[in-house]
């Protein structure tokens, strides 16, 4: 397998996937929820009870599968599997929707011979329609045969979780702990309704590290705050967002806790996996032509830096300017100024790429042609230094394009 | 003059304008700030010192003219004039920008023979470029000749404050107080960067009512909270938003205070003027094809109702669905659910026009063709009843369209 060095602490496994960590199989198939013949049902299965953790949407209208997954992970912090459908969010579907989500759990648990409470359920797609359970049941019955531990199994799963996504989102890293090679891998889907505090986003992290479910929950929460909660596509938070992590323990390291000498190394590799997926979601935002990264430096606190970064990345005017390759720093500072966070209006620097456009809140003449060339690239970095303190944050998003409007003007119909 | 009945309390003066209230003249001209030959400098002048009040953007990067206007109104609560340019926001222009805004004030004050502190200044347009003061000076010197008390003068002013607006926004009402006919009129510009708490919005209200500046400030603040602060085009709050009211007192009524028997009638007429302008701004949002009105009922508090209404009206997904004439109530309740306000997830009704789509949080089958026909109209009302309390609020916005993206991808270049 090709290995790309990502830092001192870990390496990226270029051909790795969610089935690279020991103990995991995955797969997907088309059961009939999507109108096309694309996969719409998939699962990840672990051969042993994996330590499990989850974070969920803050939208008050939580979809039925969220309740099921919370119940499963809440029971004993263990999962053997997660089953996921796309094409239908099973959200705002009332008691029947809940019954359907619980049936997905129990039927799949039975097919693979594990306790129902060891299965998590996730759904993504249209809100407010009942699942076609005849299709789902047939799919669940056929799914175990599709599971395998190869890249093909992982690809099948990754296809099954997509909706308006254009590309699969997957990453795998290797990190040495206690002389063992531990793998951490992830898969995600995103596209619309993407905004901090979880979005139309499903994410799944597998690892063969030995770690307890509480420690896993801690590292997942910390990584989420720095990655998935720092992306936005359109400011909308969906009813179905869910991120689930499963740790098989089969790598044979000593159990990871905050006291383990390699804890920081593990947490950093875990964060990296989440960051790659989060950025991939932002880059593949509905209609997006580029990834936009906003770095806020010199803030009074991390909370302020995060809030300002999210305000800038979420601004429709900034996003439209990025689409138009327009170095419109005025809109950037207008967003900084309405963030509700402490800002010294006389000390702000704004750089677009390495082009200084504002220094100490004064416009700087810059080469418009160079700015245009930079902004036409597929990644744009906006760097704002407030010169007030030492705190910083990074947020990711995308440009606002004709295609975003086209996709969302006609999604349901 | 044609009169349209708007309520028991006041009548709309169809052909009225900001120069209809006694004592006011207005005018506009092209001084050279806009590349086209459209008007870019205008003024409203009152023949007596008018009681004055203002509300301003909450963006921390306030444009230079905001400081000037606050200084003028703060001096003794009186104005003789407001001078406005478009094409350049005079924002983030540092000490020179401030000096330029003060020079606009003093030069125009001198030309019309009033104290400098009786002149307010407003600017709208591109951020971060210094005003071409040679053009502005020439314009100021020529402006007094353009002022007149007819509809033509008002039209000249209304043209001068537009940027990407497509239509002029103007309204006039008449209300009987103390046996006198009082007129209240307004003019506004909007378009992009429109979001609650003041936007790229300039608004001017003239009245010949006799009212003190403190009482006028109170009625202006109250009306703003229910109207201008309840509209959004794109969630961005500009550096230049300003709403200024001037009362000449020439109608001859007894001074209006909260103790006056007709206070409520006056406040209602004043609110109506602001509401007409706010809705006109929303309808003419950049790229908009329709006005969207969101009514939240049955909320626990007015604050909650307002916050939920603003979340729904600001959702890019809801806005895109409105452009696509898609009765996508799922996005509406997803926005309700992420508003951060108290919501009972089991008791929500959603109507689109008079079509029920969700009752007690359960989807209701509806006639898709009827919904499509309704949504293709130029005004869409979304009505959400939370069934939790007695409070309600209304917010206004527009759809998100290809043209919004087109306009904002190429604004500066």
CATH H level, superfamily name of the largest domain in chain A: L-amino peptidase D-ALA esterase/amidase
**Count of discrete alpha- or pi-helical segments spanning 4 or more residues of chain A:** 11
The CATH architecture of the largest domain in chain A: 4-Layer Sandwich
Low-confidence stretches of chain A: 1-5, 194-199
> What helical percentage do the residues of chain A reach?
25-40%
Largest interface chains and counts: A-B, 62 and 62 residues
* Coarse morphology of chain A: globular
The total beta strand count of chain A reads: 16
State the secondary-structure class of chain A.
alpha+beta
CATH classification, class level of the largest domain in chain A:
Alpha Beta
Total separate domains of chain A:
2
CATH names the topology of the largest domain in chain A as: L-amino peptidase D-ALA esterase/amidase
Task: Specify the biggest β-sheet of chain A.
Answer: 10 strands, mixed
Enzyme class (chains A, B): transferase
Subcellular location (chains A, B): Cytoplasm
Protein name (chains A, B): Arginine biosynthesis bifunctional protein ArgJ
Site (Involved in the stabilization of negative charge on the oxyanion by the formation of the oxyanion hole) (chains A, B): 124-125
């Amino acid at each position: 397998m090709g290995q790309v060095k990502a830092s001192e602490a870990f390496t990226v496994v270029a051909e790795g996937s969610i089935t690279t960590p020991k103990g995991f199989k995955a797969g997907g198939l088309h059961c009939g929820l999507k109108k096309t013949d694309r996969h719409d049902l998939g699962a990840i299965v672990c051969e042993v009870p994996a330590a499990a953790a989850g974070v969920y949407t803050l939208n008050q209208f939580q979809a039925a599968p969220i309740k099921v997954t919370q119940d499963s992970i809440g029971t004993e912090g263990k999962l053997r599997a997660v089953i996921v459908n796309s094409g239908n969010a099973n959200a705002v579907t009332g008691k029947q929707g809940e019954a359907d989500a619980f049936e997905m759990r129990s039927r799949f648990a039975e097919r693979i011979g594990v306790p129902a409470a060891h299965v998590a359920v996730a759904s993504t797609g249209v809100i407010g329609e009942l699942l076609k359970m005849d299709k789902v049941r047939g799919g669940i019955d056929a799914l175990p045969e599709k599971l395998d531990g190869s890249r093909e199994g992982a690809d099948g799963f990754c296809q099954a979780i997509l909706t308006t996504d254009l590309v699969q989102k997957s990453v795998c890293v290797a990190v040495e702990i206690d002389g063992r090679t531990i793998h951490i891998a992830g898969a995600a889907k995103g596209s619309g309704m993407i905004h901090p505090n979880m979005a139309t986003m499903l994410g799944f992290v597998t690892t063969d590290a030995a770690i307890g479910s509480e420690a896993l929950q801690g590292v997942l929460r910390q990584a989420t705050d720095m990655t998935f909660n720092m992306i936005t596509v359109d400011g909308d938070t969906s009813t179905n967002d869910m991120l689930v992590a499963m740790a098989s323990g089969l790598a044979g390291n000593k159990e990871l806790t905050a006291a383990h000498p390699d804890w920081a190394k593990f947490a950093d590799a875990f964060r990296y996996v989440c960051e790659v997926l989060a950025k991939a979601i932002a880059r593949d935002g509905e209609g997006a032509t580029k990834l936009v990264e906003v770095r806020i430096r010199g803030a009074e606190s991390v909370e302020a830096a995060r809030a300002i970064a999210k305000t800038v990345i979420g601004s429709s005017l900034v996003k439209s300017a990025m689409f138009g390759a327009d170095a419109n720093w005025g809109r950037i500072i207008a967003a900084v100024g309405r963030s509700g966070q402490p800002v010294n209006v006389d000390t702000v620097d704004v750089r677009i790429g390495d082009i200084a456009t504002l220094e100490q809140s004064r416009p700087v003449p810059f080469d418009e042609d160079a700015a245009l060339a930079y902004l036409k690239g597929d990644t744009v970095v906006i760097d704002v230094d407030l010169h007030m303190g030492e705190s910083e944050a990074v947020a990711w998003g995308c440009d606002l394009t004709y295609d975003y409007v086209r996709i969302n003007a006609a999604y349901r119909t």
